[in-house]
């Protein structure tokens, strides 16, 4: 058995599985719609076309689709790989780089899959702390600098962050990439298109040592289609990434690639769906914050994505204890922050990717613990 893999499915999935039909679930981070109707119609039209190629694509994905992706994001020609979702993209990137004992810097609090993925490849996850500031949990170059050693191979970023909704500026990314130019940075950007204040620019555009990991799952509600992408302008690195991707998945799903290609070819449709979801999440964020009342003032308003990382009431010893009480007493499910690292122990992650009414009801229920 691979000793690097956890023995069970993630604690997040296990806890979320306790929701009953009556439960207001603010747990899993998935869009509030199960694929928009415009894309259902587009997919149906594509599949009815008898001339559509549904065989294996090139390992990197259909050239025409990758060209549309690169044109859309102003990336160099031939700098992308279409993958089986963002998770596969990240695993392929880690498989490419890691040898036993290599260290990977990961954020704390941070996405809970990072550590197990690294350990399964015999790498060593090294946590760097996100610092609590006026804008919530923030990245610090000084903190990352303290964690870098001779064995460090990769620095992982995630912005907008899961679970923290942390945001980083282009200046920060450029400075970090310049200071650690001999290291690769893997940047998880699946919530990037859902920014409330500024347009999304893939971080890989800022430096050849940045590998962007992204997908269409959140921005266009295509979670079940499992279609993501890697971007890197360093051709030598990209060629190695392609080898890892080939041995993991051969290629991304052909129907999913064609759907994304048709979406990218229609810039107006791409923007309309993204903007509708972004506006929907912004509205839900504001409804939730209002319903939370004084509790909502304890956290900086997220600038993108659909998570709120809320400090728990002082009388509770841990986020798990508070989440258990909330579920038992109010039938509201949130995710214990300790699942995302030691610094999340006194926070809970609230996903507002649900109905407006659920945001109101859950916010009011949670607020009652802070009075």
Characterization of the model:
It contains twelve helices and 14 strands. With 371 residues, it is an alpha/beta fold. It folds into two domains: 11-36 and 270-367, Aspartate Aminotransferase, domain 1, CATH 3.90.1150.10; 50-266, Aspartate Aminotransferase, domain 2 (3-Layer(aba) Sandwich).
What would the keywords be for this entry?
371 residues; single chain; alpha/beta; globular; 38% helix; Aspartate Aminotransferase, domain 2; three-stranded antiparallel beta sheet
Range of helix content: 25-40%
Number of helices: 12
What can be said about the biggest beta sheet?
7 strands, mixed
CATH class of the largest domain: Alpha Beta
Task: Sketch the topology as an H/E string, one letter per element.
Answer: HEHHEHEHEEEHEHEEEHHHEHEEEH
Instruction: State the strand order across the main sheet.
Output: 2-10-9-8-7-3-4
Radius of gyration: 20 Å
**What class, by secondary structure content?**
alpha/beta
**CATH architecture grouping of the largest domain:** 3-Layer(aba) Sandwich
Estimate the strand proportion: 15-25%
CATH topology term of the largest domain: Aspartate Aminotransferase, domain 2
List how many beta strands DSSP finds. 14
Mean pLDDT: 95
What is the count of structural domains? 2
- Specify the CATH homologous superfamily of the largest domain: Type I PLP-dependent aspartate aminotransferase-like (Major domain)
CA distance, first residue to last residue:
49 Å
């Amino acid at each position: 058995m691979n000793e690097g893999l956890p023995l069970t499915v993630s604690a997040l999935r296990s806890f979320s599985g306790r929701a009953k039909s009556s439960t207001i679930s603010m747990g899993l981070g998935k869009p509030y719609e199960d694929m928009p109707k415009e894309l259902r119609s587009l997919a149906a039209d594509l599949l009815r076309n008898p001339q559509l190629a549904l065989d294996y694509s090139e390992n990197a994905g259909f050239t025409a689709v990758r060209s549309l992706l690169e044109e859309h994001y102003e990336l160099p020609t031939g700098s992308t790989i279409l993958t089986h979702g963002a998770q596969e993209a990240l695993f392929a990137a880690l498989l490419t780089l890691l040898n036993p004992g290599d260290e990977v810097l990961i954020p704390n609090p941070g996405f809970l899959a990072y550590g197990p993925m690294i350990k399964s490849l015999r790498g060593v996850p090294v946590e760097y702390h996100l610092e609590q500031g006026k804008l919530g949990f923030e990245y610090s170059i000084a903190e990352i600098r303290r964690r870098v050693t001779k064995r460090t191979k990769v620095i992982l970023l995630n912005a907008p962050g899961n679970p923290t909704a942390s945001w980083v500026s282009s200046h920060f990314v450029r400075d970090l990439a310049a200071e650690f130019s001999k290291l690769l940075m893997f940047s998880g950007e699946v919530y990037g298109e859902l920014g409330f204040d500024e347009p999304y620019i893939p971080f890989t555009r800022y430096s050849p040592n940045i590998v962007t990991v992204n997908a269409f799952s959140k921005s266009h509600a295509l979670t079940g289609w499992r279609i993501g992408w890697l971007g890197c302008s360093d051709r030598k690195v990209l060629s190695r990434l392609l080898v890892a991707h080939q041995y993991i998945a051969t290629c991304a799903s052909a129907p999913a690639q064609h759907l994304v290609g048709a979406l990218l070819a229609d810039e107006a449709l791409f923007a309309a769906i993204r903007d509708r979801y972004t506006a929907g999440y912004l509205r839900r964020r504001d409804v939730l914050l209002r319903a939370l009342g004084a509790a909502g003032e304890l956290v900086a308003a997220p600038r993108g994505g659909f998570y709120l990382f809320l400090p728990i009431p002082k009388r509770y010893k841990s986020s798990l204890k508070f989440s258990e009480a909330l579920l038992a007493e109010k039938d509201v499910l949130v995710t214990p922050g300790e699942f995302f690292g030691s610094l999340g122990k006194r926070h809970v992650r609230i996903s507002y990717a649900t109905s407006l009414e659920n945001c109101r009801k859950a916010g009011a229920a949670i607020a009652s613990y802070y009075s």
